Amino acid sequence: MRKVDIVSQIADKTGVPKTDVLLTLESFFKEVKNSVKNGENVYVRGFGSFIAKKRAQKIGRIISRNESIVIPEHYIPAFKPAQIFIDQVKKNYKPGDEKPEAELDI
Question: Cβ contacts of residue 17 below 8 Å, gap of 6+?
Fold first, then answer.
């Protein structure tokens, strides 16, 4: 599913114009990015958490030059789904299926 599909589904279900839904969705993404960038985690109850994960310093290799390099400690954005979200996916998804049978309850 792409962003345009999400916007279309929300607009169809709520009756809100697609441009307003897109603007709202883009604003949400922008706020999440800014919050995580500034070291503040974002918690959405029943959905999950957007967090910054710390990666430790490590040794990497440049194979073509047979050289070792130090990759410094850094942070990466990550998403941790809420337990209720995980349980809904497990309940509706069967091994071998390409996608879940039923929609998730929101």
Answer: 11
